[in-house]
Amino acid sequence: GVDQLDEELELLLDMESRALGGDTPARTVWTNPWWRYSIAGLFLMLVIAGLVLERRYSLSTRLPVYLVRRYEQGGDRPPPWLTRWAKWSALSPVERYFYVINHSLRTLGERPAFHSTPAARASSLKELLPAAREAIEILEGEHERALFTSRPADLSRARRAALRILLATWRARLTNRGIISRVLR
Q1: Is 74 strand, coil or helix?
Q2: Whole-prediction pTM value?
Q3: What is the pLDDT of residues 80-89, one digit of tens each?
Q4: In terms of pLDDT, which residue wins out, 47 or 114?
Q5: pLDDT per position as a tens digit, 10-32
Q6: Under a CB-based contact definition with an 8 Å cutoff, are residues 157 and 142 in contact?
Q7: Could you give the 3-state DSSP secondary structure of residue 82?
Q8: Cα–Cα distance between 74 and 83 in angstroms, integer?
Q9: Residue 162 near residue 133 (C-beta atoms within 8 A)
Q10: Rounded CA separation 78/92 (Å)
Q11: Sign of the alpha-carbon dihedral angle for 71, 51, 166, 151
């Protein structure tokens, strides 16, 4: 097992050291079995610290805005990816779910016009993807409810609709390319 690999590694290092003229065997940090555990423990601690910081301070929404502001205060333009991340983090959850409609239109080969309304984009997708018509209508309704009424949107319903639209989009894309028919043969 692992102990045997450690012994073989140590033997190889000793042979290499002797071949290079040294009479003391070469030792490395990697031969210590506790080193592996400490690396794994450090990684686990970093992951837990990241999760705690995200939960407490919502870094994923605040960090990109802060970084863009720092670039602008320094007189520089932030990189495009950072600007997109800052805009994405400023969106409401329903707006993020509605982005699936734009993504699906592009995936199916249609570029939505910049000036088109969300209703027009949803209508275009209904024509391209009739299998997901119901899910598109649900997502469009939740998006309108969140933006234009005082009632909050049902986020779980919007999330499920967005996932159904994504699945239907990828199914249509793979079918159009003939990938599914080749796999099923």
Answers
A1: coil
A2: 0.65
A3: 999 999 999 9
A4: 47
A5: 777 777 777 666 655 555 555 66
A6: yes
A7: helix
A8: 15
A9: no
A10: 23
A11: negative
**What 8-state DSSP symbol labels residue 152?**
P
- Sign, CA dihedral 174-177-183-184, equals positive
The tokens for 59 are: 């870094």
* 82 close to 68: Cβ distance less than 8 angstroms: yes
Residue 151 in this model has a pLDDT that exceeds 80: yes
> Are the CB atoms for 17 and 24 separated by under 8 Å?
yes
List Cβ neighbours of 164 (8 Å cut-off, separation of 6 or more). 132, 135
Q: Pull the structure tokens for residue 83.
A: 């600007």
The first and second tokens of residue 142, run together, are 């939740």
Please give the mean pLDDT across all residues of the chain.
85
Token pair for residue 171?
């199914």
101 and 118 Cβ atoms separated by less than 8 Å? yes
